[in-house]
Specification:
Elements: E1 2-7, H1 11-22, E2 27-31, H2 54-67, E3 71-74, E4 77-83, E5 86-91, E6 95-103, E7 107-110, H3 117-120, E8 125-126, H4 129-132, E9 141-145, H5 150-157, E10 164-168, H6 173-182, E11 185-188, E12 191-197, E13 200-206, E14 211-213, E15 216-218, E16 222-225, H7 228-232, E17 256-258, H8 269-295
Helix pairs in contact: 1-2, 1-8
Length: 297
């Protein structure tokens, strides 16, 4: 039996595995190999790692975990079940048993149904201004206003450029007033597609045929947590529909922790890594307490 099984090999999962491996725990990381930030050119906002390609960062993390005896297994977790001694984790071709589980399966970005958005995602169709704003600074930028939260996005994007257009598919009077005060130009109408030339975004096309030249478009995605394993275990949700956790990431199910974007939609890479550390420290202490109880029986 493993001490800890970590589901998800992103920054949160790998950092949790690193801490636990260094604590001489038997740790296995199961990784599907589909990181959310794979299309991005680089990770930003992570001190000492700013500008590192995501694949390079994860490869380094895997090596560090393995250096301390942790194991990385490529695969998909199909189900997690509690048993008398811990958890039984079903993979495609085997079953792994573990005393504790950390779920770091992240989230997925739901985008509006506009042709070309997904293909340009994390290139010149972007989500996070703090992650990508510097790279497109002082360029003609757009924000797709397809949901109420887009107004805040546009006010943020304005910090990196004086030329920002808000494509207003959804916009109330209060939002219009804020954008106007912030110096954001408002273009009303539904976006129907992108104009791409030489593998670069050149403009945004509206349904009425209007074309507005832009070199990058920010799209506030809807965040959907990959939390089927957690809900399958019976983990409680909060009022917003996300799995409820304590400050260490402990869910309502004893022995099950969550780390990173699966429980924190706003966590950038450095924050997901930190969440992995918090979960690992709590898991190690929880195992020590269990071991003490067994020793004094």
């Amino acid at each position: 039996m493993e001490d800890v099984l970590v589901i998800g090999g992103g920054a949160g999962g790998l950092n949790a595995a690193l801490i636990l491996s260094r604590a001489r725990r038997r740790v296995v990381v199961v990784d599907s190999g589909r990181p959310r930030n794979a299309p991005a050119e680089a990770v930003h906002g992570f001190i000492s790692r700013d500008g590192t390609p995501p694949a390079v960062l994860l490869a380094a993390g895997r090596k560090e975990v393995e250096r301390y005896g942790g194991r990385i297994v490529a695969g998909e977790v199909l189900a997690v079940r509690r048993d008398d001694d811990g958890f039984e984790v079903e993979l495609g071709d085997r079953t792994v048993r573990a005393r504790r589980v950390i779920v770091a399966t992240g989230l997925r970005d739901e985008l509006p149904d506009v042709p070309g958005l997904r293909e340009r995602w994390a290139r010149d169709v972007l989500h996070c201004p703090h992650c990508h704003g510097w790279e497109v600074r002082d360029q003609p930028l757009g924000v797709l206003g397809w949901q109420p939260g887009a107004v805040l996005q546009a006010m943020l994007v304005r910090q990196w450029s004086d030329d920002v257009v808000f494509f207003a598919e959804v916009l109330d009077d209060a939002g219009r007033a804020k954008l106007t005060a912030r110096g954001v130009r408002i273009v009303d109408g539904k976006v129907s597609g992108l104009v791409v030339e030489d593998d670069a975004l050149r403009a945004v096309r509206l349904a009425d045929g209007t074309v507005v030249e832009r070199s990058a478009l920010f799209v506030p995605a809807r965040f959907v947590p990959n939390d089927a394993l957690l809900t399958g275990l019976g983990c409680e949700r909060d009022a917003n529909g996300w799995v409820r956790v304590d400050p260490s990431g402990l869910t309502s199910v004893p022995g099950v922790w969550a780390a990173g974007n699966v429980m924190d939609r706003g966590a950038q890479v450095v924050a997901a890594a930190a969440a992995g550390v918090r979960a690992a420290l709590a898991v190690n202490l929880d195992l020590i307490e269990e071991e003490l109880l067994e020793q004094v029986r």
